[in-house]
Write a structure and sequence with these properties.
The structure holds two protein chains of two kinds.
Chain A lengths: L6 E2 L2 E9 L4 H14 L3 E7 L14 E9 L10 E6 L2 H7 L3 E10 L5 H6 L16 E5 L1 H8 L7 H5 L2 H12 L5 H10 L4 H21 L6 E2 L8 E7 H16 L3 E5 L6 H7 L8 E4 L3 H13 L3 E6 L1 H17 L3 E7 L16 H6 L8 E3 L7 H15 L2 E7 H5 L1 E5 L46 E3 L14 H16 L11 E2 L3 E8 L3 H13 L5 E5 L1 E3 L5 H5 L2 E8 L4 H9 L5 E5 L8 H13 L1
Parallel strand pairs in A: 1-8, 2-5, 5-6, 6-7, 10-11, 10-12, 12-13, 13-15, 14-15, 19-20, 19-22, 22-23
Antiparallel strand pairs in A: 2-4, 3-4, 9-16, 14-21, 18-20
Helix pairs in contact in A: 1-6, 1-7, 4-8, 6-8, 7-8, 9-10, 9-14, 11-12, 17-20
Chain B lengths: L31 H11 L10 E5 L14 E4 L5 H11 L4 E7 H7 L1 H10 L4 E6 L34 H7 L4 E6 L3 H13 L4 E6 L11 H4 L4 H4 E4 L6 E2 L5 E6 L2 E6 L21 H8 L7 E8 L5 H15 L5 H5 L4 E4 L1
Parallel strand pairs in B: 1-2, 1-3, 3-4, 4-6, 5-6, 7-11
Antiparallel strand pairs in B: 5-11, 8-9, 9-10
Helix pairs in contact in B: 1-6, 3-4
The chains are: A alpha/beta, B alpha/beta.
């Protein structure tokens, strides 16, 4: 076989799409892992339906996986795909808008007959009606070729057809000049108890690879050289996994066991699945009977001296509100993870949104402030949840961690930290005598109570949701005392601003326009700023991770620009929050509530339209 | 943990050691006073350190209980005490955890947590104060109020059928159910001590009188002039006899219980059912729980106490198993396990 030199690309966006039973998530993650091993920088985003197995061949049942790999900094999974692999007409129809004009589309032609074309909602065959003229189409009878390749293997027809995702992956490996070794190792381990499946999948993978060479699927294949990445040991990590591991790290650091009470809900459940594997590290997970029991069990664990954590998505956080108020009142540590999804009500369970900011800032009875922290990349969920635990323990008050579906399921390479490099977490311990002890004595700087827990002799006391007298903790209905306690609880959260880093600005530190965002929009916003910089447009980016309290210098930063543009995946919640806190500035908005992340181009266009006005 | 977590030898504890300095604010004549006193008498008889007792309550009149105890206590939110208690017990299984709840707290707003804590069989003790009314909200009907009962929210009489806490507990897989009554301090103290020895969720229903909104709710059982005829004090291994002269008893007639008088119609004492609290089959326990005046006496004492693994024991067991299999001992090791790569 002659081999032409591969064409070198800086970066490429690849999208896998098929029926939700076709194994597209697995195919995508294998491609990703292999690319990471080759040293590419990358970011991924799975896009799957809420239905577990919607009817085969329908648009509703399509599952997709997008990955951007490159040799230069990759901050997002990419706006539009350079290459789409569509396993059936429905996958083509629901993904065609995610492919750039001129991009490549590989189609499994075995599925482009009348029945499947109609099922997908096409009136005419897209391969024949000219609707694909803007794209380079690679026609491949993937299913029948898989069947041919697996002839003679003792497997039923259904199992043979299920190997077609490996055939498709094999084609992609040739197209992008990747080795099959890592995937072969994976298959050997995954199916070690069923050697026939190892053989079948390997055969399909090799067949796809060889087929791509044979047909010269494209004039020459591509090479994506390794990125210049900081030295160190890396692994691939999703936001949910990083959140789980950050909690493990915090618990180990503070020397308490981790208690995780939660009720299954998309897209937060993977944190439960992850943490329950680490019983040997002292983790206790409780799959509670409902959302309220989940948070209450975590409160009980915190009260008894463990690091209590609960998690949910918006619908569950709404249910937990009263209990969060109890933790605020009792002044004990508690971490509440909100992996936001499209809403309101059940909304779009598998899609992303940033619309719970108001809920977590204000969604409880009375004046009941919480610390609110939002991670901004899948991997930095580790760092920020660690900080959430630190603040919750050291300040003895609940912290809400605002992740979202995009961060939770997205993934990227992560340079492994060392436990020794993580900051200390000091639980506020009472060191005085039994006689001096009072339940609402406070650390003078942080205003936190001391974490005195059942089992400590001589310090028995009562906590509860009824208003307590300052210092003594006795029930008090005294008007002045209530005012005082309301003020203390508010000041205690405000004082956290003295213990968090100042807001950083990327790009121009003053001038015409400042971009402000929070959470998972970081990648798109940073890419927009960097791309504009290359085009000679200099603007600033302040991406906020500490949402309550805000960094102390934020007001000054906002004042250093003529205009402020707040970008978020809701109808303007951060913008209104800033208007309320810093009414002296004018805020422009870029909002999108479609269950999808921002495209870089959307942000760039908005910036350009502002700057041109 | 601080220096206060030391294992110091303790002097013998008395009732006074469990009494807090807070003024008790229940209505004069409330049955809760007797329950509080009974538990303060019971705790010194339980071989635990004072600092290891924890009282967790929900909301309602009964839920003020922890403030009047000088142990660790947590007055939480309505209906959710079982969930908080679950977290406390799992976080520190050494603790002796008591949940204080009422008929509204446990069976209405907290119904879900109530059945699930019993199903899991977590080793805690639940004192359910059943006065068949909402007291703290001033007199609405509760899930145990009688059919037809006139209350503030049922002026024409209630049209809901009441729950039986005991039957609900059995259906949820409860391993321990006892019933006692606020007019019998001795029985209460005895049952509290015995329930604390049961491994698993112990549910103790206390028939409690609300003197303001539902006075005499349990009079059919408690009235001095006939209480012996309407209280059956069950003891494991003993025949189910009652009446002042212990001359009445329970017998099985087909699939139903019946009351017989010893000596009449040729009925002998050895025809009388012998109580077996340890029987795993729930049928007889259900029948005993369902009995009520005027046709039957009310069953008091430990009705059911069966052995089953507790949730906290199983958590500990899985922890030990996980230690045997673990391929990493720390977070640093975990981070570096599995698929990693080095960029040089």
């Amino acid at each position: 076989m002659s081999k032409t030199m591969p064409v070198e690309l800086d970066k490429v966006v690849i999208r896998f799409a098929g029926d939700s039973g076709d194994g597209m998530q697995l195919t995508g993650s294998q491609f990703t892992y292999t690319s990471a091993m080759l040293g590419n920088d990358l970011a991924t985003f799975p896009d799957f339906p809420a239905e577990i197995r919607a009817p085969q061949g329908t648009v509703e049942g399509v599952s997709g996986f997008q990955v951007q790999i490159g040799k230069i900094d990759i901050y997002t999974p990419g706006d539009l795909a350079d290459i789409l692999i569509a396993m059936n007409p429905a996958a083509l129809r629901s993904n065609i808008n995610w492919v750039r004009k001129g991009g490549n589309i590989i189609l499994d032609t075995d599925y482009f007959q009348d029945r499947n074309i109609k099922k997908a909602g096409y009136k005419t065959n897209p391969m024949e009606d000219g609707s694909l003229d803007d794209y380079k189409i690679i026609e491949a009878p993937i299913t029948s070729l898989t069947k041919t390749a697996l002839k003679g293997i003792e497997l039923d027809n259904k199992s043979i057809i299920r190997c077609k995702n490996m055939f498709a992956l094999g084609m992609m490996y040739w197209l992008f000049d990747r080795s099959k070794d890592e995937t072969i190792k994976f298959l050997e381990s995954k199916f070690r108890k069923k050697p026939v499946l190892v053989e079948a999948n390997k055969k399909a993978l090799n067949a796809g690879y060889n087929y791509a060479i044979t047909i010269r699927a494209i004039a020459s294949n591509y090479k994506i050289p390794a990125a210049k990445i900081e030295k160190g040991i890396y692994r691939h990590i999703s936001g949910n996994q990083a959140s789980a591991w950050g909690l493990l790290a915090a618990a180990e650091k503070v020397g308490r066991k981790l208690f995780y009470g939660s009720y299954p809900i998309t897209p937060a459940s993977d944190i439960l699945h992850e943490l329950t594997k680490y019983k040997n590290l002292g983790v206790i997970t409780l799959q509670a009977e409902d959302e309220i029991a989940a948070v209450c069990s975590a409160i009980g664990a915190s009260y008894a001296g463990q690091l209590g954590v609960t998690a949910s998505a918006g619908p569950g956080i709404a249910l937990k509100g009263e209990a969060i108020g109890l933790a605020i009142m009792a002044e004990i540590p508690l971490i509440i993870i909100d992996v936001q999804r499209g809403g309101p009500s059940t909304g779009l369970p598998t899609k992303t949104e940033q619309a719970d900011l108001n809920l977590v800032l204000y969604g409880r009875n009375s004046d009941s402030p919480c610390i609110v922290i939002a991670p901004s990349t899948p991997a930095n969920c580790f760092e920020y949840i660690f900080q959430a635990a630190r603040l919750s323990i050291e300040h003895m008050t609940p912290v809400i961690f605002l992740s979202d579906g995009y961060l939770a399921n997205g993934s990227e390479p992560w340079k492994l930290p060392s436990m020794a490099d993580l900051p200390e977490i000091n639980a506020p311990q009472f060191k005085g005598s039994e006689q001096e002890f009072q339940p609402y004595l406070r650390d003078p700087k942080k205003m936190s109570r001391y974490w005195v827990v059942p089992g400590m002799a001589g310090l028995e006391h009562r906590l509860g949701g009824l208003e307590k007298e300052d210092i003594t903790g006795n029930i008090s209905y005294d008007p002045e005392n209530h005012q005082k306690m309301i003020d203390i609880r508010a000041d205690k959260v405000k004082a956290v601003a003295n213990f968090i880093p100042e807001q950083q600005v990327i790009g121009a530190t003053s001038g015409e326009l400042l971009l402000v965002g929070w959470g998972s929009t970081y990648g798109s916003m940073l890419s927009a700023v960097k791309e504009l910089e290359k085009e000679g447009v200099k603007i600033g980016l302040a991406h906020i991770n500490y949402l309550n309290p805000l960094p102390k210098n934020l007001g000054t930063i906002l004042g250093a620009y003529n205009k402020v543009l707040v970008c978020e995946l809701n109808s303007g919640q951060l913008a209104n929050y800033l208007r309320h806190l810093f009414p002296e500035y004018r805020y422009l908005q870029l909002n999108k509530v479609q269950g999808l992340p921002f495209k870089i181009t959307e942000i760039k266009e908005k910036i350009k339209s502002i700057l041109n006005n | 943990m601080s220096e206060h977590a030391i294992d110091a030898p303790q002097p013998k504890l008395t009732k006074k050691d469990f009494t807090s300095d807070q003024m008790v604010r229940w209505c004069p004549g409330c049955g809760d006073y007797a329950i509080l006193s009974a538990i303060q008498n019971a705790l010194p008889q339980i071989p635990e350190k004072k600092e290891d007792f924890v009282f967790i309550s929900g909301i309602g009149c009964a839920a003020r209980f922890p403030y009047y105890m000088s142990t660790y206590g947590f007055h939480t939110i309505h209906g959710r005490a079982p969930a908080v208690a679950t977290g406390v017990k799992l976080a520190n299984p050494k603790l002796n955890v008591w949940e204080i709840t009422g008929d509204g707290d446990a069976l209405a707003i907290g119904g879900n947590h109530f059945i699930h804590v019993l199903r899991r069989n977590i080793d805690i003790n639940i004192l359910l104060f059943n006065n068949e009314i909402y007291g703290l909200t001033k007199g609405q009907y509760s899930p145990t109020s009688r059919f037809g009962q006139v209350t503030k929210s049922t002026p024409m009489g209630g049209i809901e059928r009441p729950f039986s806490a005991g039957e609900l507990a059995l259906a949820a897989g409860g391993t321990f159910f006892a019933r006692t009554i606020d007019t019998n301090p001795k029985l209460m103290t005895q049952i509290f001590v015995e329930s604390s020895q049961h491994q698993g969720t112990s549910l103790i229903e206390i028939l409690q009188n609300c003197v303001i909104f539902n006075d005499n709710a349990h009079a059919a059982v408690t009235r001095k002039d006939h209480k012996d005829d309407f209280q059956l004090h069950l003891e494991h291994g003993k025949p189910m006899l009652f009446g002042k002269e212990k001359d009445k008893g329970l017998r099985l007639n087909g699939f139903k219980l019946e009351v017989v008088s010893i000596g009449e119609n040729g009925d002998q004492e050895n025809d009388i059912l012998v109580h077996d609290a340890n029987e795993t089959d729930t049928i007889i326990h259900h029948m005993l729980i369902r009995m009520s005046p005027p046709d039957f006496p009310m069953a008091l004492g430990i009705i059911r106490a069966v052995k089953a693994p507790t949730y906290d024991q199983l958590v500990e067991q899985q922890y030990q198993q996980s230690l045997e299999k673990a391929s990493f001992q720390s977070v640093d090791e975990l981070l570096r396990s599995g698929n990693t790569w080095e960029v040089k």
